[in-house]
Amino acid sequence: MSAADTPTPDDLYTWAADLERTAQRFTDLKTQMDAVSVTDTSADGKISVTVDANGSPTSITLAPSTRGADPATIAAELMACIHRGQAKLRDRITGLVTDSVGDTGPGHNIIDQYAERFPDPEPTPPAPAEPAFVPTEPQVPQHQQPPAVLPHSRTPDRNAIYEPDEPDDEDRFYQGKSWLV
Question: Which parts of the sequence are annotated with region: Disordered (predicted)?
Fold first, then answer.
């Protein structure tokens, strides 16, 4: 190493000041990133999900009209809202990193980590319109009709009157009349 390659004290002070400014920019970036949250709402406005800077859901709002809807449809739309919110988060973090620390190696690492964790969501087909609920009597196909009640069976038939084949002692005592009379 020659004497010309040896840094001067002024060079070291400048280098240290640059490191402090860079460290402060990353500290500010971290503060801004921690404050980010993104909300996504379903196309019909019935479901809304907010995700924090880590992509974790912090709030889920369901409209009253989701009551009675197909649970699988609601779950699918919830997951779609979360994935879209995470993709929006990735884009917002990319903008923050670019504005705060510029085109740097650590900045690219942050952007790449968010891009890996939160890829673009798969396009979801539109949900079929829910048919209006019309209460009707259940229709049982003929081949599934319950079997007819057989006499002297234990199958409940509340409208049938059961009379034994042979009278028992109580029937003889009351002579076919009710004991309530």
Answer: 116-181
Query: Beta strand 47-51 with 38-41: parallel, antiparallel or unpaired?
Result: antiparallel
Residue 117 contacts residue 55 (beta carbons within 8 Å): yes
Residue burial 83-100, b: 16+ Cβ < 10 Å; e: rest: bbbbbbbbebbbebbeeb
pLDDT in tens, 21-65: 988 988 998 999 999 999 999 999 999 999 999 999 999 999 999
Report d(CA 70, CA 62) in Å as an integer: 13
What is the structure's pLDDT at 31? Answer: 92
Residue 61, H or E segment: strand 57-62
